[in-house]
Write a structure and sequence with these properties.
Length: 141
């Protein structure tokens, strides 16, 4: 199975959008992960609801600040056409429960989560991926 078959269409923010607008998008779309894209639609980072809690709220920062200051840079991305096993490998290797999917020009076209993989893959395979994503032990190659 290919990632194209499982991915969700992305909801993005730009680096100059405010924390408040990003949080509002999360609320409206019922999502906890927002890719941050440049003007060409290429991902430059990502923000999670946990990032907002730890990097903004817990630090007493303003919701009017730009989201780019709080995003995690160097997003992990696969390509359209990749097999789901490649997405699982990226999740395991980088300990991420979500990865972005980009087209051949590097523009964001989707997001695939560990939950998407778990819904599509045998429970044993998804369980192993989850264990490795959440583990504090280095991955074996």
């Amino acid at each position: 199975m290919r990632v194209d078959e499982l991915m969700s269409r992305p909801k993005c923010c730009g680096e100059t959008d405010t924390v408040r607008s990003c949080a509002k998008l999360m609320k409206e779309e019922n999502i906890g992960f927002v890719p941050i894209c440049d003007d060409e639609g290429k991902p430059v980072g990502a923000v999670t609801d946990r990032d907002l809690t730890i990097r903004v709220l817990a630090e007493g920062r303003s919701a009017d600040e730009k989201i780019g200051a709080f995003m995690t840079r160097d997003p992990i991305a696969g390509r359209t056409g990749d097999e789901v096993e490649e997405a699982e490998r990226l999740m395991r290797d980088h300990r991420k429960s979500r990865i972005m999917v980009c087209d051949d020009q590097g523009r964001l076209v989707g997001v695939i989560s560990l939950a998407d993989v778990a819904d599509a893959e045998p429970s044993r395979t998804a369980g192993q991926t989850l264990q490795q994503v959440k583990s504090d032990q280095p991955t074996a190659h």
